[in-house]
Amino acid sequence: MDPSDIGPNVGDNTSELRIITWPAEQLPIPAVSVGPARLAGDGFIEVWLPWNSSEERRVVVPDELYLRALMTLSLDDSTAILEFAAAYGTVIVPSLAKVLSAAQGRPDPETEDVERLRERESEMHLSTIEHAKVCMESTFAGVRAAPPNQQESLLDAVERIGMISPRLTCHVDEFRWSVQLLRDMVRIWLANQGSLTFADVREQWESPVRPAGTSSGSWPSREACARILAVGLNQGLDRVRARIGLVDVDGMPDPAVEKDYEQPDLFSVLCLQFTNHIAENARYWRCQNKNCGRWFVRQSERAAVGQYRRKGVKYCSKRCAKAVAQRRWQERNPRGKRGAGDEGSS
Ligand SMILES: [Zn+2]
What is the C-alpha to C-alpha distance for residues 7 and 4, in angstroms, rounded to an integer? Predict the structure, then answer.
């Protein structure tokens, strides 16, 4: 089958449900607030933000982050997770239980699996809020305990450094579940596009969006796949809706209006990147460098010349293309290989 024949609107590739996007155009990717991140002893990824939102560090995430970095992120490695969170932020799905409920066709009453997942999630959310509260209390207790002549400068310091953001802080397990769900969703779409099979999706299923007792290979059905993709993405897209902002003469946001608006978080931005690819019916490639194997849509570093090559792209980046060319050259020129080895050991 010619892969170009497979699109989001082609018949029964994902059950009888067709995937459509509104709007059909691609949308610009908003910046996200990124603060210093730290892994606390009790497993929370603490994210710190300054008091004043105009001083927040705004980061535009790299293209295809949901695909390139997220699919290969090692979730067993807390250091790798922390590095990712410090660079781009934490990934938090608002409700995995909602996704599971939709996958099961939203039965009323809800299944025990959904209830159990909802309970686990709300415990996690509550403990995050509690964690942030304890941190805040201990900071202010420190200020109160200081000699009066130092209190003011300490408060200044707190204001500069900021506070734990309960919205961006999460438990490392919550981060893992959220990334796992996004990866499951990407594989669902890859299967819908013919780049993977639905058997691959089931075998590689990672997230806790799965009823108890289902064996590997039996979950989810194609219909459940389509619903997981839709409900998962919509939870992120909820926060990147169109809006009106107000700024003063200095360009500072009007706090009276800003307060109602929840800034897009990283999960929302990743969902938007993903949805943009769905909207354009992007063709996915897998890097042919055997040491890489990343999924990608456009070869990176080509954007610099203003042109993307979309047909017959073998490597995710020029770096991978170069690495393979070099390896081949070395295989053909054993003498050159020895030379390179000598260089490496010096
Ligand atoms: Zn590559």
Answer: 7
